Amino acid sequence: MNRRVAAAALRQLGPRLFSTAAISRSAAGGTREPTLGVSPLALSKFLSTAASIGGEGADERAGAIASASTKREEKALASYWGVAPRRLFNEDGTEWRWTCFKPWDTYSSNISIDLHKHHVPTTWGDKCARWLVKSLRVPTDLLPQRRYGCRAMMLETVAAVPGMVGGLLLHLRSLRRFEHSGGWIKALLEEAENERMHLMTFMEVSQPRWYERALVFAVQGVFFNAYFAAYLLSPKLAHRMVGYLEEEAIHSYTEYLKDLEAGKIENVPAPAIAIDYWRLPADATLKDVVTVVRADEAHHRDVNHFASDIHYQGHALRELPAPVGYH
Q: pLDDT tens digits for 297-320?
């Protein structure tokens, strides 16, 4: 009896609730397909009425109808705008599983880079930059010495800031002055993204505690604004400071590796995101991850010291081509 009443109600209300007037264009070809043009308010009222009439199981059926309607609507929107992400595949035919980076963003790190290069501070600006970087070690030194995973995360939350700030300010300067950047915008944003991927990787190794998260908020808030002001006042000082910051990062990761090799830290399997991003072998370990991350930091050290030298020699960055893709 309840089913008959529900069917009769559907026949009466159907023309008012549903319409084939709403047409969506298919993303693949441009063919037109009729879609359900349902008013959300009317649909919710209808479903609640049907639930009250249908008795047992009506709530589940109503929920399934609403879910299916939402999925159809989302698909129609994606098809209309034509920006639905395309499916990507690995070389072995399996589907690409990451949304934060694409297959063409992956690379094999050059771990043969010289890790012992050091810029000896000579000018007052160099010495000031060196002192500022040394002072930034204080927050990380507050953490337990053996929690290198969280120390690495702390370091990356700071190291990912300069590239973004520098790229932003160079972008705005390029717009104001109607001039190109010599590729330096892309190079600096590339550096920031690489540092962020370091953070995403170490998030798989160690989860920060509440006080470490609070420390990240404080340090990042202060450092972003300070570096923004420093880059506006003196880009050569800002880049020199980042060069020294990367030297400290190399030292920290070297100590991390020593503890891994000595067995003081468990050499766990590498996270899947690291294996795909750096094209590591399937049996790679945490030691392999730290090794490639340290090599990345050495490349960032070279780029920033190089950028500072350009400014010290009286040139603008755009006058020399940027080392895009150097890492």
A: 999 999 999 999 999 999 999 999
DSSP 143-205: S-TT-HHHHHHHHHHHHHHHHHHHHHHHHHHHHHHT---TTHHHHHHHHHHHHHHHHHHHHTT
Residues 54 and 48: their CA atoms lie apart, in Å, by 10
Helix spans in 37-147 (H): 40-54, 58-81, 124-141
The CA distance from 254 to 252, in Å, is 5
Contact 175, 190 (CB under 8 A): no
- Rounded to an integer, what distance in angstroms lies between the CA atom of residue 73 and that of residue 108? 41
DSSP string, 226-284: HHHHHHHH-HHHHHHHHHHHHHHHHHHHHHHHHHHHHTSS--PBPPHHHHHHTT--TT-
Exposure string for 271-302, b = 16+ CB within 10 A, e = fewer: bebbbbbbebeeebbbebbbbbbbbbbbbbbb
Query: Is-above-0.85 flag for pTM?
Result: no
Q: What is the pLDDT of residues 251-262, one digit of tens each?
A: 989 989 999 999
Token code pair at residue 315: 């040139």
Do residues 194 and 164 lie in contact, with contact meaning Cβ atoms separated by under 8 Å? Answer: no
